[in-house]
Design a protein that fits this description.
mainly beta; four-stranded antiparallel beta sheet; 171 residues
């Protein structure tokens, strides 16, 4: 949500949608972006986070194995989301394979990889160019990210939830 606007994603329709919600109880669709095959694919998109004039989406590219991506959208013209940047990685330290959650706090975005058990931190100060700056990977123990599905940041702490180990970890 951002003021009188709600932003949603649909993994089945590969869509980022914008609704005017100023008339409570009567959301009105005002814009969409739909793509399932290009650089800004929304194929199997799981999450959207909107902290201001930019929205951040995370999708895990189940159909296109190389489409595990965090994408940045300029949403200053609320009814017209415009893609401005991406980072794609299906393996390695900053894997987005199976990413189901993105959270933004200040100049940083945080993602968790369900498939690769990874918490990654991204510098997003240059909105069109997410840059990976830190990572944590673990599938066992007290700070397990085995099957991580969600990340939430409050102050100096990141909270993650691991589905396979029933773990809430604080970093």
């Amino acid at each position: 949500f951002l003021g009188d606007y709600a932003f949603t994603v649909c993994k089945n329709d590969d869509t980022l949608a914008v609704f005017n919600i100023s008339a409570h109880g009567n959301p009105v669709p005002i814009g969409t972006y739909n793509d399932s095959e290009c650089d800004y694919s929304l194929d199997v998109v799981y999450a959207v986070f909107v902290p201001g004039d930019y929205a951040y989406t995370a999708f895990n590219g189940a159909v296109f194995d190389d489409a595990d991506t965090i994408a940045v959208w300029n949403i200053s013209a609320h009814g017209n989301p415009v893609p401005v940047g991406t980072y794609t990685a299906s393996s390695g330290d900053y894997s987005l394979d199976g990413t189901q959650s993105v959270f933004v706090s200040g100049d940083y975005a945080y993602t968790v990889s369900y498939a690769d058990d990874t918490l990654a931190v991204w510098n997003i100060s240059a909105h069109g160019n997410p840059v990976p700056i830190g990572t944590y990977n673990d599938s066992e123990g007290d700070y397990s990210l085995d099957g991580a599905t969600d990340v939430f940041v409050l102050g100096d702490y990141a909270y993650t939830v691991s589905q396979h180990d029933d773990t809430l970890a604080v970093f």
